[in-house]
Every structure is written in C-alpha cells, then in structure tokens.
Amino acid sequence: MSLTLDDVKRIAHLARIEVDAKEAAQVLGQLSGIFALIGEMQAVDTDGVEPMSHAQDLMLRLREDAVTEVDQHTAFQAIAPQVEADLYLVPKVIE
Amino acid sequence: MLNYTIRQLTAELAAKRVSSVEVAEFFLKRINTLGKALNAFISVDEEKTLAAAAAADRLIAAGKAGPLTGVPVAHKDIFCANGWKTTCGSKMLANFIAPYDAHVIEQFNAAGSVIAGKTNMDEFAMGSSNETSFFGPVRNPWNTETVPGGSSGGSAAAVAARLTPVATGTDTGGSIRQPAALTGICGLKPTYGVVSRYGMIAFASSLDQAGPFAKTAEDLALMLNAMAGFDARDSTSLQREGEDYTRDLVKPLAGLRVGLPREFFAEGMAPDVAKAIDEAIAQYKKLGCEMVEVSLPNMKLSVPVYYVLAPAEASSNLSRFDGVRYGHRAPEYSDLIDMYNKSRAQGFGAEVKRRILIGTYVLSHGYYDAYYIKAQKLRRLIAQDFTEAFKQCDVILGPTSPGTAFKIGEKSGDPVQMYLSDIYTIAVNLAGLPGMSLPCGFDSAKLPVGLQLIGNYFGEAKMLNVAHQYQLATDWHQRMPQGS
Questions:
Q1: In a domain, A71, yes or no
Q2: Count of CB contacts below 8 A, A vs B?
Q3: pLDDT tops 60 at residue B339
Q4: How many domains does chain A have?
C-alpha cells in the first residue's frame, strides 16, 4: 500500500499537529520510505501467535483504591502556560 | 582524579585526601570548558551541585558514607530532578522546571551522590546521533566532526571526555549501548522492569529502561546497585529480591558458553568492527570460554517491528503535550483545536513529529491489526528466538553497532538509514532482555568499537562478570580521547 497526501493530512489532524502543504509533501516522502521498511513485516506468517505487549508478560499490578497523592497544585500550576484562580485556562469551547 | 573509578574516588574521599566539594569543582571546571565545546550538557547549576557535594562531605565526616557518596553523576535530561530544568531535549519543555524527583534521581540522592548536571540528548530520546536535540548536536570527543550516538549522547560524551566519572541514560532501542559504543565507554540496559520509570519522561513505555554509563563494568555494577529496585509508582516495576550486582565480578570465565548469533555476523558490519569483534572473541577463548553458534532468525524484522511499536506508544505518550498543563503553548491561535495544533507543531522537532504521525497511523481505524497487532506478534517471535538461543549459551556476544561514529549530518537526512544503525540493539529491547556495550578496540580512523553482551532475563550480574573479566585482561576501557 502507499500513503497519499490526504493520509498525511488526516493523521496530522488526528495527532493534532499543524502541517502546512509544503511540509506535508516532505513528510509524505519520508513516511513512504519508513512504511516500505515496516512493510517487511508482512513477509512472515504470524497466524496463531499471541501478540506480546509487555516484556515479561506480567499482569499489571493493582493497588488499593485509595488517595495516595498529596495536593501539589501550586507546584504543578507554577509551570503551566496560563492559570487563574487555581484553574488551567484554555480558549473558550462552549458558547 | 581524571580516570578514577568509583572505588578509587570514594577511597580518596574516605581517606580525606580530597573532599567531595573539590571533586565537584574539578569536574565542573571541565564541564564548563570542554563540556561546552562538546555541547554535552543542557543544564549546569554550580550552586546546586556544590551544595550537594557539601552535604556529601558532611555524610563522609559523620562516617555515614555509602559506595556512591560524594560521586558526581551526570543525568540524562529525561529524568525529572526537583528544581532542575528538565527539557528532554525539546523546545516543548525548554522552560520546564521539574516539580519532583524521578525514582532514579531519588536513589542517587539517597546514596549521597552529587548531580553534576543534566546532559544533552536526542529530542524525547528519539534518535541515534544526538542531532535531533533542540539544544544542538553533541560532539564526539574522539573526533568532534562525528556524532556521539544517541539518544543518550550527552551522557556518553561526558563520561568519555571525563567531564564526570559516571552518568545515567535511557535505552528504548539502543540509546545507552550505541552511544557507549561510539564513545568508547561502558553502558548497560537492565532487564525491563528492574529500574523504575517513575519520573522518567516516557517515550515507548513497554521498551524504555534506564541504566548507567561508566568507564568500567565494576562501576556499572555499583551504579546499578543504587538504581535497581521495586517502586510501586511504576506499574511495570518488578517485585524482586534486591541483588548485589558486584557479586560475580571476580568469577573466572572458564567453561562459560558464549553464543554468537549467526545473523549478527552474516553481513552489514564494517570490516574494522568485524576485526575488533573477532579479536574480542579470541580474547574470550583465551579466558576459557566456549563459543557456540546460535541463531536469531527473526532478528532482521526487529527494526520494522520497533518502528511500529515505539511510535505507536510514543504517539500515545506524547499526547500529554497539549499546551495546557505544562510545556510550550503557541503565542497565537484561533480556538482550542488550533491551540493544540500550533503548540505541538511549534514545540516538537521534525523527528518527533514523524514518529507521532507514524504511531497515529498504525493505531488508526483500519490499520491497527495490519500494523500494531502484527508487530506485537512478531515481537513474540523475536523474544522466543532469544529463549531458544539461551538454551545453548550463558551470554550472547556480538557488535553493538554496525559501524563506528559517523559524521554529523551524514545520516540526518535519511531516517531509514539512521534507523538501521540500531539493527543489533533493538531486538534486546523488544525481548526485554539486559544488554551492555563495552569498548573492544578502534577502527582505522581511531574511533572506538563497541562489543555488545546480551544476558538472559535478570542476567545482569553474569553479564557484568563477563565484561569485568575482559577488562582485567585488556586495556581498551582505559583509553581516553586526546585533548580531553
């Protein structure tokens, strides 16, 4: 399969990364090369193989459903781009 | 002091022949001169470093010193260190002051070591040459026209140029072992889950693992003693008994079965690298090891598999950088979506964007099974190859990298060529095994060659034993770059 310029624009939107027309053409060229490399995977039969998501095949640990974090909002909000009244500010989303 | 190992340095400190403050001043001076020329550090904070050194001196005076007390450690700028700028090599985090310590930082602080500074790295650890850093490329001290490898290039260059006795790094597809090889030092990636990822900025969470850089295998063992251990804050941290990684260093190697994977030696290695590896094999035979040919038939697929899985995980992990809670926010935007789009377009560099886009694509509707699930299935086959190989041998040996340090700019225009330079290291991350690199010679351009050892799960102590015995018989690890 080969990628198209529309694919690049679609995934850039999904990834929330602005890509202008010139960049999109450049990215298309690079991604096509990378997907040619990735395509080598299809040569191997993997029917019946269980997907491996974790190096040790362990179950993720569960813990008590209890509050463990202490309130550090002052420290965390000190590094936020825009804060007011202990709230993170974003552009208006609801009219 | 320049070439002291950890044990030599702490012996001098214990005997009061030198203070930790004097040690810190000695290395800070090098960081501020040579280090600047190499661009090895992103952040240096003399006040903090000297305060930590003074605290270490008080511990030593009180007779409370441990094996790492007073030892300067440079940390890859991927580890959050409270009050330190922690950039991950990105414009996105160029002004991010970490509000807490990573587990690895906590462990070194508790051991009384001294943060020497935060080292330069490929942006978000995505790169094999340290050229993707927002803060500019790091130069290899053996030849400043060449790259130090990556992504932990600053840490590797810093240890190689003796700007710090030891350093930390992270390895997702070879980011500790490859730069260690290209700069002529030692670096170790532990078994996945041995070192907590808490406070380590995430790239590909099922592969990321922190580890040490040093001049010798013995120093790596001492550092791993401090870094390893269970931490409930990392959901994949393993609950295991503590180990002393120095315990097997002195064991003789007679009778040890060393596996040589056919696929590592088939093609692709530069002739000078092949020659140095052959000489290392001859040395191991002299030490009484038995060479066994093994096979890793699916290894050639590790690069394509990695470039599906790592970008998939990265696209998910890096979705947190939205310009809202921390990191870069675009100065101008029309609405919320536009703010995300512009903040991320401005904050991330080209390689990071490329990987986010690959990851987004392979996880998207209609492609998930063909790419992501397919890659996870192949990951199992790659891991099973190692399980089979370890039935015939105790440790696997081969090159770390197909070539030596390449010129700055040589591969940066061609992502696929750059990705293929990690052909020997990536499979180890996919399987979750421990691996290390140690220096074993030089090419005709006097650039270092790295020897890779791969251990079975939790085989770090064995691997360090194999490396230490080699270093008792050879002196490659004592060579240092001229001009340093």
A1: no
A2: 171
A3: yes
A4: 1
Question: What Å distances lie between residue A81 and B93, B95, B323, B327, B357, CA to CA?
Answer: 11, 10, 7, 7, 25
| Residue A33 exposed, middle or buried by CB count within 10 Å (0-12, 13-18, 19+) | middle
For the stretch A60-94, pLDDT in tens is: 788 889 998 889 899 999 999 999 999 999 998 88
Supply the residues of B annotated as catalytic: 76, 151, 175
A2 pLDDT above the threshold of 90: no
What's the domain range around A14? 5-43
> Alpha-carbon distance B346 to B330, whole Å?
7
Chain B residues in contact with A57 (beta carbon < 8 A): none
Interface confidence (ipTM) of the complex? 0.95
In sequence order, the β-bridge partners of residue B435 are B189, B454
Closest partner CB to B238 (pick from A3, A11, A56): A56
A-interface mutation test, from B88, B300, B317, B357, most A Cβ less than 10 A away: B357
Is A91 contained in some domain?
no
pLDDT of residue B268: 86
The pLDDT, as a whole number, for residue A1 is: 57
User: Can you give the pTM of this predicted structure?
Assistant: 0.97
- The verdict on residue A83 lying in a domain is no
Backbone angles phi, psi at A10, to 5 degrees: -65, -45
How many Cβ atoms are within 10 Å of B198's Cβ, its own excluded?
20
Angle at A40 between CA A38 and CA A46, to 5 degrees: 105
| Distance between B190 CA and the closest CA of chain A, angstroms | 12
d(CA B449, CA B271): 11
CA quadruple B292, B293, B298, B304: dihedral sign: positive
- Residues on chain B touching A40 (C-beta within 8 angstroms): 300-301, 304
Residue A70 counted as domain residue: no
Domains with residue ranges and CATH for chain B:
6-250 (3.90.1300.10)
Quote the tokens at residue B48. 């903090």
| Residue B101 in tokens | 């310590």
